Amino acid sequence: MSTATQHGAGTESSVGTITALVKSDPSPGLGNVSVARLPEPTPGPRDVLVELIYAGLCHTDVAMVDRDAAARGGYRPSFPLTLGHEFVARVVELGSAVPDMIGNGDADPGLQPGQRVVGGSHVTCRRCSRCLSGRSMLCENLKVLGLDIDGICASRFVVPAVNIVPVPDSVTDETAALAEPFAVAVHAVERANFDQFPPGYLPRVAVVGPGTVGLLVQCALGEYPVTMIGTPADADQLALARDLGATACLAIGPDDSVEQAFDVVIEAAGHHSAVATAVAACTDGGTVVCVGLPAQPTPVDTADLARREINIVGSRAYDLSTWKIMGERLAAAPQLERLISHRLGFDDFGAAIELLRNRQAVKILLDPAARTTDAS
Ligand SMILES: [Zn+2]
Ligand SMILES: [Zn+2]
Predict the structure, then answer these.
(1) How many angstroms does the Cα of residue 259 sit away from the middle of ligand 1?
(2) For residue 22, what are the contacts with CB-CB under 8 A and spacing of at least 6?
């Protein structure tokens, strides 16, 4: 694993300006992405100004840089746009109304200057029926940091107070940096509805796809025994899954069959063939949770679902309420930081995107304080 040569708060040399990773226009590629100096943002009344400790990168950032179908289809960015949506940061300043939000359910009462925080990237209206029904990820007015509006790859940035929660002292900066994708995994487990099983019954659980999301789902499953299912090309990732505690790891080739053995199967590969594998691995009466976003539609035999009484549910990111438990979930998952394969500086963003494109990285952190890097 790489190590950053410097890290810490107080990285700004020019008062009133920040450093940010900015994509200047919608054209694909890295040519229009640069490190820019911008005026420091001012928090609105219900916002918080924070200082970035680490940003995390994922394939959504690659899609945003490349402006591929996934990015163009789902988001409506305006440019220039500050990139990034995964963060751990430190509170600098609370907006004027934030203290009044504390205690009435709108913001975490632990928010105060100096506090480390993590949070979701969904800026939601909190008024529409979906927000009010506890499905803020489906907000009719949803805007996502780094995808629709300015994101978090900035030495300082502003985020709504309702989006962030304090990080327990026992959690390292590195573990906390994985909070956003870990919340995606925690929500996928919520969607599996483990409460459906009678007390004393230990459900058999499989995860399809040992990529970063699949490994995070494995970690979010906590004490449940997990079988990780990948392909023969996933040998390294399956080994990592085993190191992280998977009970069994299966490499399934195109001609291999998989046993219908699992009460819960979480599909995290994002490839259409993985959905078929997940349904095939699901036992009668079981539940398949679809987290992955295959690029093409996936045919499903609904007669098979009916005969076998299989539930298929989708899982998109997280609700704001998911974040209420993320502090304790992070504290219980110190192994998350083993997913970090690289720590790089903002200047290395192009190299980071290439590492992700070429599937040479698991989780890359960007350290805004790193001036030089020692990548592996
Ligand atoms: Zn992400
Ligand atoms: Zn809404």
Answers:
(1) 32
(2) 33, 34, 35, 36, 38, 80, 81, 82, 83
Task: Name residue, tokens 């800026």.
Answer: 123
Residue with tokens 């209420």: 324
Ligand number nearest to the C-alpha of 56: 1
Can you list the domains of the chain with their CATH numbers? 3-180+318-374 (3.90.180.10), 184-314 (3.40.50.720)
Q: For 139-149, write each residue's pLDDT tens digit.
A: 999 999 999 99
Take residue 91 and report the two structure tokens written for it. 């509170």
Percent of the chain exceeding pLDDT 70 equals: 93
- The alpha carbon of 76 and the centre of ligand 2 are apart by a number of angstroms equal to 16
Q: Compute how many other C-beta atoms are within 10 angstroms of the C-beta atom of residue 155.
A: 20
Please, what's the b/e burial string for 216-243 (b: 16 or more CB within 10 A of its CB; e: otherwise)?
Answer: bbbbbbeebebbbbbbeebeebbebbee
Asked if 340 contacts 174 with a C-beta cutoff of 8 angstroms, the reply is yes
Distance 370 CA to ligand 1 centre (A): 21
Ligand nearest to the CA of 128: 2
Residue 92 has pLDDT above 60, yes or no: yes
Which residues are within 5 Å of ligand 2 (an ion), measured at CB? 124-125, 128, 131, 139
Residue 171: C-alpha distances to residues 78, 85, 179, 328 (Å): 35, 20, 11, 9
